[in-house]
Amino acid sequence: MRYARYGLLLTAVIGLVASLGYLVYTPPMPTPAAFVGLTAVSLDSSVMSFEDLTGEIVVIDFWATWCAPCITEIPHYNALYADYHDKGVHMVGLTVESGTSEEVMEWIDEDESHRMNYPLVMADDRLMEVFGPIFGFPTTLLLDRDGTVVKRWIGAVSGKSDQLRELIDKLLAGEPIERPAPVEDNVGDPEGPASGSVTPSGG
User: 60, 63, 123, 188: which could form a disulfide with 194 (CB 3.0–4.6 Å)?
Assistant: First the structure.
């Protein structure tokens, strides 16, 4: 009986560690070389080349239609896109685990709050490999003009929009940016429980 209790306890611990793994693991950062020849298909079936964004500041956001935290960020990203697009800053939404492009477009048309004014593409295995692994949504990356990842956010981090704007303004001004070590990347909400800010991948 004692061994049975130990076995149940061990199983519970392993399950807990597995369920929280996406919160404590910091994925490796992609390198500029990984973007060579990298393309994605947009919702209207046109092809977008990441090489065409060379020399530009880029915000990449992995999102899903069933991810509530992702939806709450849409107005912030629409505003970010409106304020910075004409300054050479690009915003790209990478759609994951949300069905076909037709199903995604139907979901967008269902509600005005679902409408995204920035380009959306369908994420495939290569995109997930280059920018991932992706353990939770939303996952957001800011790339500088060299294609280097300046910062990665995992989850709907409190103040993310303000942090993005601050870093983008510095990049536009050519100011040096202190790049945090990978273990310092923002994961979840540092001001509260992560359960309300990160949606695990897999729906």
Answer: 188
